[in-house]
Structures are given as C-alpha cells and as structure tokens.
Design goal:
Helix content: over 70%
Number of domains: 1
Number of helices: 17
Strand content: under 5%
Distance between the termini: 27 Å
Order of helices and strands: HHHHHHHHHHHHHHHHH
Number of strands: 0
Largest sheet: none
Radius of gyration: 20 Å
Shape: globular
Mean pLDDT: 90
C-alpha cells in the first residue's frame, strides 16, 4: 500500500466519524458531508488497491475463485462479527430476526428497509457492498485484461447511464432514495470500476517523463497542487450540504476522489507538504487501523456516552467529540493489533493448510 493512500484511509475514516457525531441536542452533525465523502473514497480506493494486490494473480489464474473469496471473507468477517456481538451487548435488546440474519450474512445492503440496511452496527452495511464488489472483481479484471479499450468505453457509458439513473430516482421517500442511490451494492460498482481504471492509468503513466518532472518539482509547487485536491473536497462539501442524498452520494465526490488518488499515488515519497505529512509514521499506522476504526466508531460513541452518563459526568458536545475521537482511535489501534491482524493471520494459515 502506498503510504499516503494508507494515511488517507485514516483521514476519511475520521470524516465518517464526524458525519455521525451530533454536536448539538437537535442533531446537527460535526461534519455531515464526511460520510458520503469517506465511503466514496473507500470504495474507489478498494478497486485501486485490489488491482495492486490481486490483478496479476487473477490474470494468471494462480488462485481459485473459492480461495479468492475466502481470503476476502477472512478480511471482513471476524471483525464484523465482533462488532455485531458488541452491538447486541450495548443495546441489550432484541432486534428483528430478518435484520440480524441479514447482518450476520452481510446481505443487509440488499434489503430496501432502513431498519435492516442501517440495522445493528450501522457502518457494517458497507461490508455487504464490498462482498459484492469482491465477487465480481475477477470478472472485471479479466474483461479489462482482454479488452482494455472496450472496458474503458463501458465505464464511460456506465457513468452517463448512472447520471440518468440518479435523475429518475424519486425523492418523495427519503429511505428509498437513500437505498437506491447509496446502499444498493450494484450502484457502487461504478465507483469500484473507476478505481480499477485508475490503477491501470497509474501503472501506465507512473514512469512517464511528465510525471517524473512533476515529482522533481519544488515542494511549493507540489503543495499548491495538493491544496487543489483539498479545495475540490471543500467545494464538494458545499454542494453536499445543499443537495438531496441521491446527488451527493457519489457524483459530487468523483472528481475530488479521482484527483486525490492519482495525485498522492503518483507522488509517493516525493510529495509536497501535505504528502509528506501523510507519509508520517503515526498517520500511516492509524491508516492501517482505519477498517477497525470505521466499524467500531459508533459502538465506541455509544459506550463513551453511556459511561459518562453512568458516572454522572456531563460534558459539552464539542468536548465529548474530542474525548470520543481519542478513545475510538485508541480502541481501534488495539483491536487492529491484538484481534484483527492475529485472527486474520491464523485464518489465512488455516486456509493454506
């Protein structure tokens, strides 16, 4: 994994955290656009890094489809089940059987019911999407490998059709609008495919003389370009605050996400001030634990509020934001080190044997 992209995983995980944290009693979020922004980055990055790790293996058919899917399941399932158990303990209440079963099987994103796709540990809806994307990844790679021009054409056509699809989504039912534009797994396929295409572009241009010339340019010049990436996200956030959910789920974030992914991957170890900050060891380490942070953050928020209420401590929402964020980071680092990675290694060894 490119260090700056690893760190960005952590940055966008915090954006999702902020989108879920209420700063006031009437439900004003700390940073509402951060949720859709972060999910878009994760899905597009997933297509990019899946190519880096599995493209050649799939092309050479050196791994069976069954083993490939088992590896991906091992990556997601142990932490998912841990979080689901913690959720059940914290809520101390029965949930609908359909919702619980869908969550256990990671099928919740396929059900057009907000109590199911956002049920139990809410962030886990994204795992349902990722399992679908992983399931189609080998077919996508083989198609791109055999017919790259046609694959690029299909992606362009899909983008155009997706815009038409978004226009047609009704806005009179917020839950259905949300599901059709953001949650339904096939809808996120285009983001994943764009990530795959970006990897192909990155591989083709990373040694081009124009890219090398930019990498050798001054830190100031590269910092200005990095600030353009930040600016695109700022503009996207302004639109996301005003537009209905169907428009800000993906369309608003395509341009800034594509720009950021290509910029920070091509300037790896040769970036401007922002790139150098992203390559710092603490940020890279947190980025490595970002998956744990993402799945755990709402559980920690609830646990911290319960604990402070139980011992009679009341704090303002901004103070609780920083306390909860610090606790969530600490817990995610610990879970990543002492549960997620060891369990993953053990299961992978069992798979090989």
């Amino acid at each position: 994994m490119i260090n700056s992209l690893q760190s960005l995983r952590g940055v966008f995980a915090i954006m999702i955290f902020l989108s879920h944290f209420n700063l006031t009693d009437d439900g004003v979020r700390a940073f509402y656009p951060g949720g859709t922004m972060g999910v878009e980055f994760f899905i597009m990055l997933s297509g990019f890094v899946m190519c880096a790790g599995y493209e050649k293996i799939v092309e050479l058919r050196s791994i069976s489809y069954k083993d490939f899917m088992l590896r991906r399941l091992i990556r997601l399932y142990p932490l998912h089940i841990l979080c689901l158990v913690v959720w059940l303990i914290l809520h101390n209440a029965e949930t609908e059987r359909v919702g619980l079963l869908a969550n256990i099987l990671m099928l919740q994103a396929w059900v057009p019911d907000i109590d199911v796709f956002y049920g139990c540990n809410t962030p886990s809806w994204c795992l349902s999407v990722f399992m679908f994307l992983y399931a189609v990844f080998p077919a996508l790679i083989m198609f791109y490998y055999r017919q790259p021009r046609r694959a690029a054409g299909v992606i362009c056509a899909a983008v155009i059709l997706f815009v038409g699809y978004i226009i047609l989504i009704p806005t009179d039912n917020n839950d259905m609008e949300l599901w059709l534009s953001r949650i339904l797994p096939p809808v996120r396929l285009i983001d994943f495919a764009i990530g795959i295409a970006l990897w192909q572009i990155y591989r083709a241009v990373r040694e081009h003389r124009t890219v090398e010339r930019f990498r050798r340019s001054s830190v100031g010049v590269k910092t200005v370009v990095e600030l353009v990436a930040v600016g695109l996200y700022v503009v996207g956030s302004m639109f996301a605050e005003e537009l209905s959910p169907k428009w800000c789920s993906e369309l608003v974030w395509w341009l800034p996400t594509v720009f950021a992914l290509m910029l920070f991957s091509l300037t790896d170890k040769a970036g401007g001030l922002i790139g150098r900050l992203l390559e710092s060891r603490p940020l890279v380490a947190f980025g490595d634990a970002s998956f744990c942070f993402y799945l755990l953050h709402l559980l920690v928020v609830r646990a911290v509020y319960r604990f402070t209420y139980h011992i009679g401590i009341t704090q303002s929402h901004p103070v609780m934001l920083w306390i909860t964020l610090a606790v969530t980071i600490a817990v995610s680092l610990a879970v990543n080190r002492y549960f997620d990675k060891p369990v993953g290694r053990k299961l992978r060894r069992l798979l090989k044997s």
